[in-house]
Amino acid sequence: MLRFFHAPNPLSLSKTDQYPKTYLKGSARTSAIGYIPFSHIYLTSPSQLRHFCDAVNRDHRIFIVGADGEEDILSHQRCPVNLGFKKEGLASILSTSGLDKSLSIEIAIVNGMGRGYDENIVGLGALQHFYAFLKTKFSSVKIDLLQREQSTQGILYEEYEQVNETRQLPITVTQFYHYNAYVDIADLVSFDSYGKIPLFDFFLQALSMHKKVILKRNKRTKLKITHPDKINRLRDEVYARGCIGDRRIVFFHPLAGTALKSMPVEVANQLIEYLLWQRNLLVVTVVTMASIDPRIVNMGDVSHDINDHINLIAASDAVITAGSFTYQISGSLGIPTLLIPTVGSDLASARLLPSVKVHMPKAVRNDVSDELSVGDQAARDSVRPIWDSLQEKDIVGFLKKALV
Asked: Domain spans of the chain?
């Protein structure tokens, strides 16, 4: 949901080195009674508003706009049209709102396309379909992502025409009113369908694209490899560091965003041993492993952002990973991937990616977790049988097919 607060003018955001700790700079306390110009009211996300309250409300520099005030802002004649999560579908809402009578449209995606890289990569794919549909209706389409963490997520979208600009929240209501329409993708876990359907389908619902017929094989992100020469240089660097050439490269990523989805250390070490028994391989990773075998090549020093991570995966012949954004990337690129999922949402999303093979023996299918957050120790223990079911034959069988 959209949240608003009133603050003194001028208001600027500054960040310390301890990102994302944020300070609000403004004049002394002002009265919130009476007429407040839109240039003094700010749009933000619920989580960011809580952060602001913790960080700055000790000196009473912000005033949260209540429910009545929010209704006034969102019902104002200048307010953009809400396109998000509409049962009637995008075409219908464009028609009933009169937006389709214009030649151009400017849309704000509030809270961006999710939180972590996994959601943003899948969200980008849904956004590509959203943009393509809008281009059939308008000669000019501009989509801005309004995100709390512009510096980290915005890098992903730099090469894609579907995103005009990534901007950092908060913005003033005056700035918000410059848009024709908006989609509010707030705290995703608050939606009933989140985690119960493939993530790609969830984002199509968020963009009111669920009535558009999209073939299963097209429900993936079209990632760009803009510098193929960089991929070749990365392969050469892997060979140089591994002191050997003409070997197949397997990218191994045991970590995920939560402990529930991450591979236990001892399982990761055992899996590395399985890989090293295959003499024709070099193993690339971006995390430090226990083994000091020279055929394990740590490329973490060249993986500084999401685009570097994409390039490393693109330079690989196969991928083995826990349920992180890595399989979303490799699956989108069509690279053979072995995914070991421990949560249902990854299991569902992987079904849309033909190059992703899921390790899920019948004996452990009931151990898949419905948790969406970190999960306590009991939850992590409950998915342990999935990790323990991973055997050498599973790795060898996958590699035999993947590296033909």
From this structure: 3-218, 228-402
